[in-house]
Specification:
The chain is α+β, with helices and mostly antiparallel strands and 404 residues long. The chain contains 15 helices and eleven strands. It has two domains: 119 residues; 272 residues, no CATH class. It is elongated. The N and C termini lie far apart (70 Å).
Length: 404
Amino acid sequence: MPRKLSDFRLASQVEIENALKPPKDLTGYSTGGGIFTNAPGGLHRTVIFKVMHETFGPPNSDAGEKSTWEWIIFTPAGLLTVYDYKGSWSIGYAGINVEPSNELLAEASAFRDALTKEARKVHISKKQIKKSKVGGAILNPYALYRFTTNDLMEQAKQIVEEIKRLGKEKDLHKVVEAINKNRIVASLHRAAFMTTFLSLEGFINLVYALFLKDRYRNDIYEKRLRNEILPVKILEMDVYCHSLEHFPLKEQDELFAAIQHFINTRNLFLHANISDAMEAHLVKQDKYLVVTRGETEEKYGIASDMRNLTNAHVIRANKLVQKLVVKVLQAMAEEVRYPFAIVHSGIWVEYIRKKLDSIYFPLSEEDYVPDSVIESILNGSTELDKDYFNIGEDEFKPMFNEML
């Protein structure tokens, strides 16, 4: 019969001291280890803390440097531990230089099942979230799409190297293979261009999700802002978001014009619109039939159509996104500028709201970033300067694009 959480009890102070009493004349020894680690059952550590605290009372052990709480549970086969670590939680065992016996592993399994069963009963309704939410964590779309872009571009680079090797071959089959790989590179560049834009949109949405003023946190404004066009969300960021001392960008800024061009090009791609460069015209001139094509246009170092998209355009588009990030960070109030500069590129962004129109980013030891790195981010160039146009590698124009 499955055991209940109430079937277990806290270890007494004497039991803990006896189990963890250091052996004489021995300087190096272990005090335990993990059994079920990394959030067994997929439950968040805060839910586990709530259930443990309500069942057993406050933690009965010193959590150590890398944890914030720990309970030690008595079983006939030995002592179990429940603790948080690196944003997760685990079940382990306590004892000097011991390995968990089969009996203790069985006790750990029974305890895990009982604990996770109780934890799954904790249900937070949407109404409770709206009324009582004081913080949370956001899966960062900006970071996710940056990683996606980097992965796509790295894959494209590897294929380009293969194309260069194939270019030295005289075999017809190798030539055909090189042409096919050119097509793959062109596809990867198009995909990376789109994910770069998604990182831009993701960053703006992240800022609005974290810093939106409380007066606008209602269904009316949030729906309106979700449907708002991106340029307006950029220009009006200081209107809708707190912790900004001034607007990040003005309409007359060259950076804003470049981002606007990036947005317009993305819209052509996203909606598969037929641009002038994608259309050839058959014209009768005198007694001749002449084919003419629209000229391709490049603005701010970024192509205006998919025919001529290269790695250079993706790299510059990514630089535009980074320059916008710097502009927003520079516009922020000092108390949030540094912490947000640290967490803005993490996969998860944790935050706490202590009062109206304020935000706090709890930082752990793993979040540490040298001041020099943060300063280099905050002092990054926001101009379309020589460094912006220098892509740092050879531009590769896929042969497939030349055939279009």
